[in-house]
Queue: 3 jobs
Job 1
Amino acid sequence: MQSKTTGMMNLIAGDISSLAGMFYPAAAVFIGTMGAFITGTGLGSNIMFAGMHTQAATTLGMNPITVFAGQNAGASLGNLICPNNTVAACATVGQVGNESKVMRKTLPAWGIILTLYMALAMVYTLVVFPGFGM
């Protein structure tokens, strides 16, 4: 049977889980955001990091479902600042060349929502659904 994660992902999951500790749900949101920023899609981010989050959550004794929900929420938020989407949106509304201006106006809102999502991921994983799905 072939593993759904690679040895490298398991190694990264171990390192990140030991570094983030109980704050891993918040880290999962940030990782999801950065994955979507890089790949240009939430799906790409989710595929790239699903195995890692499952491994890390299991290692830390956390609910992998809520940890991955944080990843997914972060990935959707990453689309807000994704350069591909910014360029496409500017082209659609006739604002070609104003991408940096749009990005500068978007980043403060992104930061506020990211902080909120990270806090919610912590609450849902550690308080609301700590044993759900385990």
Job 2
Amino acid sequence: MGAGISGASTAFFLTNYSTSLHGARLRIFERRHRVGGHLATVAIAGDRFEARGSIIHPRNLHARCFVDLPGLAIKDGGQDVWLGTWE
């Protein structure tokens, strides 16, 4: 599986909740030189920006649950965050 959010969540649930694969070792096959799949952080003029990712709404309980299960942290952008969409 790949090293994006889909591959990471699949690996987490397979190794933690599948009765036949509990504790199994999985291999990651990623075609790019980095992990993250469609998620990426870019640096422009000394500032870091999230690129190609999605906005996770606080009421998206599936996304919030996946943040909580493996013990990930949410970083609040604060009030001075700008949102832009470019193609």
Job 3
Amino acid sequence: QPAQGAPQEKTPEVITPPEQGGICSPMTGEIVPLIHVADTTFASGLLGKGIAILPSVGEVRSPVAGRIASLFATLHAIGIESDDGVELLIHVGIDTVKLDGKFFSAHVNVG
């Protein structure tokens, strides 16, 4: 058992499309419990349940089959609605909104 605050497991290198109702990892890296994130909004669960991932590759993929519901102008966050109606938020980094889109590029559009 890892020490508290230590990464829990490594996500798979190959991400395959989820089965109906399933959620895959949006990126390769180490999973950290959300309560250990240095942002109280996320750590408190105010935005819902989730996990944090310390990425090992600079690429994010959709963890579900669905549609892009929102794409923040600063490109640091993406809202996704799965084909099953589950709403997900992928938020990259802490205080990344302050980067105003610098260092991010989107390969998707809303819809």
